[in-house]
Amino acid sequence: MSIPTRYRRVLDEVAAACEQCGRDPSEVRVVAVSKTVGADGVAEALAGGARDFGENRPDQITEKAAAFPEATWHFIGNIQSRRIPDIVGAASLIHSLGSLRHGQRIDEAAARLGKVQDVLVEVNVSGEESKGGVAPDEAGGLVRELAALPHVRVRGLMTMAPRGDAAADRAAFEGLARLADDIRATLPPDKADAFDELSMGMSEDWPAAVSAGATIVRIGRAIFSDDFE
Hints:
CATH class: Alpha Beta
Number of strands: 8
Distance between the termini: 11 Å
CATH architecture: Alpha-Beta Barrel
Number of helices: 10
Radius of gyration: 17 Å
Mean pLDDT: 95
Largest sheet: 8 strands, parallel
Order of helices and strands: HEHEHEHEHEHEHHEHEH
Structural class: alpha/beta
CATH superfamily: Alanine racemase
Oligomer: single chain
Helix content: 40-55%
Low-confidence stretches: none
Strand order of the largest sheet: 7-6-5-4-3-2-1-8
């Protein structure tokens, strides 16, 4: 099956899942996680209708964003301080912000480029040591600190669920949605209006994320891998 065919199949499946839980399919954006493919794979996905792509390495997002400026690029990987200028130069949305220090560096880099950088705060809802992000009880304070930076716009939250446990997946996604509602209620109206994104769900668990309120799902293997069923 070709990359365009797999991408369109994912879109159809996301639309069906939205309708099943009473949501408008337009509320959920599919980010094609292209970290395992090169320029040819991105070009195929673009031909199939994909417009949002996710990368987890600074080198890859800068190269691919330069090659495909018509696409919208998302940074979903661990943030390294020294690579923040590169990330800010290429990314429309940074999904994985987990510290004020990195937020301040992003603010500085965005100011130099004359842009306001959209970010999501990564939250470790499951509490797994292997997962990045801040603890849920620290997320609200970090969002409010970041919201005070003039060149950073906090758009919402991101999380990764435990793998292989459907009940834990649902609990993580529903927990992130509740946390986002709680944080939004503490923000000034202008900041609260912009705080409208929930990035959660990948190839294996996105249906539970959509049911819980995801606005962005990050799909890699189901689009780019021949091995995914």
